[in-house]
Design goal:
Purple Acid Phosphatase, chain A, domain 2; 5'-nucleotidase,  domain 2
Length: 465
């Protein structure tokens, strides 16, 4: 008895709703084609469907994403870091209350109770119409430096996976991992666990058009932003998995689903209405400019210094994407100006290293550097803006410039002293500032994002203006 199961999967949508109706139409078309073949299909999302940089997600704390997933009839989903660490604990506890699908994540625990939350399952055994049993196991990336501050603990994916495989392997015909761990981790797990048949991957936005095979395990990765819909075909004979193939389908670029477009228009209008809550009234506008310090970027640096109780505030001007108007300032204005899911962070930096960072940040290469990922939703770095730190620039005959001197609160920088710097978490990840990434002591502030600090600053007359 042969049986073919088709898994339709999406990942890392990040609230790119401009692609949603086309994405939905691609899923509908695939289901129709599979139905015409008389085969069974399952639809799964692999996390980071939500991104609070979009008004619909911000206004609803992600609940509208879940409504849209219900509308598309998802059967299963796992948790991404954008759901896990950009919402307060209470908001995450409520996110999937109205979901028509189970949320599968095995390595997320409440810190106090040391139990998995009630709204998720560590795994599901999916039984097909012909009785084939597949274990679907969910794992999310262990960003414990954030999760711990929010009241969660994310356990080691390897340890949790070993326990669950030992539990489910005797009961199923195939094991499928729903992974929001990233491609390198997926490859490592495929090599470490021969029991795994398929890994449906996400998080690092890799594009694997036909999947990859590692140690007899097939790995899928489907890019980001709804650009692709993945299709994994599993062929069983007498309930034994005998073949598997993977394909990525480019999302349809036609008109898309009219019903989904109408629903999105309604949700967008509702979100804009909900975000018209006034925050404060300003006598003068706050102006953004990526290539010079302005009253807006200076306010942000001052606010970071105050919030983090630091010696210095440091932030890149590229973080600000719009001006704030004179007069009434609303939640929507704040979100438009600073939509990034980026948190404040306090660092202890030696004077010698701080001098190197200031010099590097002043180079044209760093100012014009395009940035993708790391929570950043803008275009480029921009100039670095400071509060509590000033520097003088020498202009040379050949037109080049260099930093001649640095002062902190009017005194020359002490290269042997440690300074507390209030800045943004983006600098502590990735490739932007490897010297900052290597710092041993980083103090993250969650759940507050940078726009929350801006709202606090402009609405509180006692804080830096």
């Amino acid at each position: 008895m042969r049986e073919v199961i088709q898994i339709i999967h999406t990942n890392d949508f990040h609230s790119h709703f401009e692609n949603f109706s086309q994405n939905a139409e691609t899923i509908r078309r695939l289901r129709t084609d599979i139905d015409d073949l008389g085969q069974e299909h399952i639809t799964i999302d692999l996390g980071d469907h939500m991104d609070r940089s979009h008004l619909i997600s911000e206004a609803s704390n992600g609940k509208m994403n879940v409504r849209l997933m219900n509308k598309l009839h998802y059967q299963y989903a796992t948790l991404g870091n954008n759901e896990g660490i950009t919402l307060e604990k209470e908001q995450l506890d409520e996110l999937y209350e109205e979901a028509d699908f189970p949320l599968i994540v095995a390595n997320l625990y409440e810190t106090l109770s040391k139990r998995r939350p009630d709204w998720c399952k560590p795994y599901v055994i999916h039984t097909t119409k012909q009785g084939t049993k597949m274990a679907l196991i969910g794992l999310t990336a262990p960003f414990n430096h954030f999760y711990t501050l929010l009241g969660w603990t994310v356990q080691s994916p390897e340890d949790v996976l070993a326990e669950i495989i030992a539990e489910v392997e005797p009961r199923v015909h195939a094991i499928v991992l729903l992974s929001h761990l990233g491609y390198p981790a997926d490859v490592a797990l495929a090599q470490a666990f021969p029991e795994l048949n398929v890994i449906l991957g996400a998080h690092t936005h890799h594009v694997l058009p036909d999947g990859e095979t590692h140690a007899h395990c097939k790995i899928a990765q489907g890019g980001r932003f709804g650009e692709y819909v993945g299709q994994t075909t599993l062929c069983f004979d007498q309930h034994a998995l005998v073949d598997s193939t993977m394909t990525l389908h480019k999302s349809d670029r036609g008109e898309g689903s009219a019903a989904m477009s109408e629903m999105l228009d309604a949700l967008s209008a509702q979100a804009k209405e909900d975000m018209q809550i006034p925050i404060a009234s300003r006598a003068v506008p706050l102006i953004h400019d990526w290539f010079k310090e302005t009253n807006f970027s200076k306010l942000l640096a001052k606010t970071l210094r105050s919030w983090c109780d630091a010696d210095i505030g440091m932030v890149n001007a590229g973080l600000l994407l719009a001006d704030l108007p004179k007069g009434s300032v609303t939640q929507m204005d704040i979100h438009t100006a600073c939509p990034h899911p980026i948190n404040p962070c306090a660092l202890t930096i030696n004077g010698q290293l701080l001098q190197e960072i200031v010099r590097d940040a002043a180079t044209n290469e760093k100012i014009q550097m395009p940035i993708k990922g790391l929570g950043f939703r803008g275009k480029q770095m921009g100039v670095m803006v400071y509060d509590g730190l000033e520097f003088q620039i020498d202009r040379h005959k050949d037109g080049s410039t260099s930093i001649a001197s640095i002062t902190i609160h009017g005194a020359p920088i002490d290269l042997d002293r440690d300074y507390r710097v209030g800045t943004i978490d983006m600098f502590t990840f990735g490739h932007l500032y490897p010297s900052i990434v290597r710092l041993p002591n980083k103090e993250y502030y969650v759940p507050e994002m940078m726009r929350d600090l801006l709202a606090w600053a402009i609405s509180n007359p006692d804080e830096p203006q």
